[in-house]
């Protein structure tokens, strides 16, 4: 059974074409309190089908920590900021973790009163 804190936290995955784009998106999401933390993993190799062709690209993976309540707004903002026609936005429900960290994620993404 997940803890109450865990059930509200989400890990959103997205890819970016380069580090400057990833950094700009990460900074904006944290500044706007849509994400508590965004980790950037450069050097990822992606292979995917796009418009009928198999493509390969080096990308930067974003690991975005947010809450269920902020998820939709975060995805909308990510889509607005992102240069891709169809940006990756996959949310994973957190089933457990260190409760103080999960509480911190919730606190950092709390909407201003």
UniProtKB/TrEMBL annotation:
<dbReference type="InterPro" id="IPR011322">
    <property type="entry name" value="N-reg_PII-like_a/b"/>
</dbReference>
<comment type="similarity">
    <text>Belongs to the CutA family.</text>
</comment>
<dbReference type="InterPro" id="IPR015867">
    <property type="entry name" value="N-reg_PII/ATP_PRibTrfase_C"/>
</dbReference>
<dbReference type="InterPro" id="IPR004323">
    <property type="entry name" value="Ion_tolerance_CutA"/>
</dbReference>
<protein>
    <submittedName>
        <fullName>Periplasmic divalent cation tolerance protein</fullName>
    </submittedName>
</protein>
<dbReference type="Pfam" id="PF03091">
    <property type="entry name" value="CutA1"/>
</dbReference>
